[in-house]
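Hey team,

Filing this mostly as a record. A colleague (T.K.) asked me to run one chain through the structure pipeline before their review meeting, and I want the input and output archived in the tracker in case anyone asks later how it was produced. No errors, nothing strange. Just documentation.

Input sequence:
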Amino acid sequence: MLRSKLLFAALSATVLTAGCAPVVGQNGFQAIDSRPADIVAGTDTRQTVLTKLGTPSTTSTFESDTIWYYMTQITEKYTYNRPRVTQRTVTEITFDDAGQVSAVRTLDLEDGQQIAMNARETPTRGRQLTILEQLLGNVARGQLPRTDENEPGQRRPD
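Output structure:
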C-alpha cells in the first residue's frame, strides 16, 4: 500500500512539473548550412550571400538594394501567459555600389528598444448617427437600375 502511494506521488509530481515546461517557438530566419555571421566584408557579394543564406527576411525601406536583414527570434510561453521573447538576433548586411559586402553587423535583444504604442483612435468628423438612423438610413433612397448587364452571371459588353 505504501509503495503504491509513493509511486502515485512520484507520478503526480512528474506530471505537474512537466506542465510547467515552456513551449518554445523559433520564428524567422533559420540557418541551415551557414550562418549570417560567416559572411565576410570585402570578399562576399550579393550573389554569394544569396547562395549561402537565401533571400533576406527583409530589406531596408529606403535603401532596399544596399541593406539586407536576416532576423531570428526565440519565444517561450508558460501555460496561459503571453509568449515572452528570450532571444532575438538581427544580422544587418550592407552592400556597396559594386555589390560587395561592406559591413556585417549583428544586433541582439539588448540592442532593441521598447516603443510604447498609443491606443487612442483618431475621431472622425461628421454627424453621429443613432442606431435607428443607421438601420433605416438607406430605405427609399433609390434602387439600382434593373438591366440585364447588371445581373450576376451575365457577360459585360466589351
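Quick notes for T.K.: Strands lie at 23-28, 58-59, 67-77, 84-95, 101-108. The mean pLDDT is 80.
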